[in-house]
User: Fold these one by one.
Assistant:
Number 1:
Amino acid sequence: MEAALRTASAQAKSERVTRGDKSPTPIRRSSYYQPGRARLPSLLSARALRYLAEHPASSGRQVGRGLGIRHDSQTWALLHRLERDGLLAKEPNGIATAWTLTAQGHRLLRDLPDGVYG
């Protein structure tokens, strides 16, 4: 029964993808910093990068409190998105996780225009 459901699900998915004249658009990972491209992060992302530059090896909860984010899940999503984009690295630090800027994160922070991100 489960195999039949999986097969039906796979067929439905392939029909959705192949319907119509257009081919599906490939999904790309976003990247804030690409040499030669001016792509600025959101205000909250820039504030998180600046906070971690001033407070290296902070936990997610410390970052959230420092930025005024109310829910840990929002902080978690922000930090993991920045990690996925190569701007942050995490290291286990006892119970918590220590977040630090990568070289790419430092470059982006250095290249941000003055006055735009407070």
Note: The radius of gyration is 20 Å.
Number 2:
Amino acid sequence: MLGTMCVMTRTSSRFESAYTHSRIFEGSGESDVLRLLFGQLPSSVTGPASPEQASDSFPVSPHYACALADLARQRGFDGYLLNVECRLRGGPEQTRALTTWIGLLRHHLKTEIGDHAEVIWYDSIVYTGALAWQDRLNNHNLVFHPPSTGFFTNYSVGAAGIST
């Protein structure tokens, strides 16, 4: 796998095209998204913390944003496609934290690899935290656009969903 990634990185560089890596969180991936945003979830004497216990009172952690930016620099790719296809039960508070974290990732990528860094957001969840593909950029998913460098709409959009 690493050999294939090196060949793809060299080839994309030769043709001056961006090469991004995907971070996909699906199904029961909410706890992984929360770990990305807040760091390792704390545990207690009564057992591990559950995603319901995470709230906007937790500060967003730059740990994984820094680690992913460093990985991009080390491996020679230009950024990430972020695909969060799992519901965030914390609702708008957690989506606000996610948009803050996307901004952190963008900042650290630009610091590590330069202004050409890419953070592409995939159309999957909306500002309420619900998993609801919109097939276009609209008021339900717009919050994810400003901190990213691009928007990748759901690939089921048809000609009727595209206006000129």
Note: The chain has one domain: 20-41+51-156.
